[in-house]
Amino acid sequence: TQHVDGSYPGSDSDGSAERPWVTITEAVDACASGGLVAIAAGSYIEDVVVAYKAVTLWGVCPEQVEVAGTSNGDAAIVIHEGASGSAVRNLSLTGAADGLAVTGSVDVTAHQLWVHDTSAWGMVILSAYGPAAVAITDSLVEQSRQLGLLVDGSQVTIERSVIRATQPALGSNSDGFGIAAQVGCTSQGCDTSLRSAVTIRGSVVEQNHAMGVFLAGSDMLIEGSVIRFTQPDLASQMTGRGIAIQPTCDAQGICDANSRANLILRSSFVYHNHDVGLFVGGSDALVESTVIGGTLPRAAGLVTGRGVSALMACTVEAGCDPNIRSAISLQNSVVEQNHDAGIFVAGSDLAVHSTIVRDTITRPDGYFGDGIAILSKLSLSTASLSESLVDASARAGVASFGSAMSIDKTTIRCAAFALEGEDSDQHSYDFVDLGNNRCGCPDANDTCSVVSSGLAPPDPMP
Length: 462
Description:
Shape: elongated
Low-confidence stretches: none
């Protein structure tokens, strides 16, 4: 064990408890692989790098031990290549760069960290120098800039942690994501074979900007977690989404059909975000035993406010690609108190089973308010709805705009139009009644009948 105490007044440091080093860097340099650096209370202004050996950095507690990185370093603490098995424990990280950076090392532990008020990203786990794998537990990341946590072509598990109040990037006033995970990327481009794999369990992602959780071309499990209060992008006043997933797309907006994102969202709470609670673009999502609700309209234009939106892969630069569809399944879940549409699908495929969609209201300008709206745009959309309840929709309970939909053992209650069918984009609507469906208000005692009232569909990308 190498000891560190920045307040030691002597000039005879040797790393012992009686004559500790005064900087963490000195202790790391002296530490053998597999060794421990024990850090006493104090503020240490330095850029610590652990490379080519496994070292555990262990502070007294985050409230008493602070490592403040400088603008000369990449992060307050960097775990570089060849340092697999290293650990960072019981420390506060802040400073003029990132808080914690890991690259080229696996089996890395980040435990009881307080990463706060960094001038750049809170944590970044990169594949630039080889595979990286990190377990983040019992930690708090707050008031970072641009990104609370970036996972790039790496494996990360987050448990019992909070990532909150990420601020926009200095200068541009854009971004401020809580968590972003993507394939391995460098200045030369992205390698879609280097997918990130992220597990978020028992954690809270809140009060971030633009995106609470963003996933591109990678895999994620969110379980027993809360994603809430995401604020719009400060510069554009757009988005503010709770969770958004998409394929890997290049700078020209061309998306890779073989680099779809895959999300499993289970036993979680996605609430009071802006624009869309869960957005799926050209990717795959399974939602189980989850509540998605209270979504507020987008700040710019006061439009959307949808609970769930699943579209083809669409970008501002290149438009929508009908060949890259989304596939989303909701089971045993609740979608409630959203604006515009509870669930909206365009050019994609939806399956809803044993789920409640309720209290969908219009957006502030009085438009829309459909519980479930399925639109064929550029390509045919399909949907199946079984053993579910659609309740108290401001406009249509279930609306098919040129889409193919089957309904089985479902109740549609208290909507202006229970089942609305309209042709769209050269596609005819098609409802298949599989039986045991009921409609009406306040009691659903009537047979469900499709009407065509000339309703317009919500805009996929308003």
